[in-house]
Amino acid sequence: MSNIVKRTLDLILVAALLVLAVPTMLIVALLNPFLNPGPLFFCQVRVGMNEKLFRMWKLRTMMGEATEARFATSEAHRISGFGRLLRRGRIDEIPQIINVLLGDMSVIGPRPEQPGFYAEFSNRIPRYRERQQIRPGITGLAQVMMGYTDSATGAHAKLQWDLDYLEKQSLKMEFFVITRTFIVLLTGKGSS
Fold it and tell me: How far apart are alpha carbons 7 and 25 in whole angstroms?
């Protein structure tokens, strides 16, 4: 699939997502001061296409600040009750639409990794850097097939799905990932 087709598809999907995202974000913004006091957004540096660093936006779901790269599962004690609800419905991912509009991310692609984990996995896992040939995604084949992982072993297993996506990029593959994403959202499969 050409970059122009992929980018056009991203913009069409983002336009469709905005119809649901705007009202959802307004509700979250109204509830946040009462249920999750503090900033509404959380920004974290991630590794993007061609190893370019960018700031990925999410809704804040945790209390306090992390000082180093950690898997989300090791930080579960910091997740607020409201944050847990946002994560269950993947609502915390909505601000990544901004990253898609800025061109740092795509709707579909390998999930962007934290620089510390990226350096570790690139050194330990053969072909790991190949994921960076395309823009990272809000959702992706590895995400819908495996959900979240919290180890280098999990990252290695997800890499196989990412490489499969890279090799088979097509409109059919995009449709498959979008369909599986909706199934994950409706069933909660793969929730953190």
Answer: 24
Cα 145 to Cα 12, 159, 161, 192, distances in angstroms: 24, 11, 8, 14
Percent of the chain beyond pLDDT 70? 92
Reported pTM: 0.89
Q: Are 140 and 168 in contact (CB under 8 A)?
A: no
| Closest of 94, 84, 89 to residue 63, by C-alpha | 84
Helix (H) or strand (E) holding 159: helix 152-167
AA letter at 67: T
Q: What CA–CA distance (Å, rounded) separates 161 from 184?
A: 16
Residues 6+ apart with CB under 8 A from 153: none
- CA dist 126 and 145 (Å) reads 21
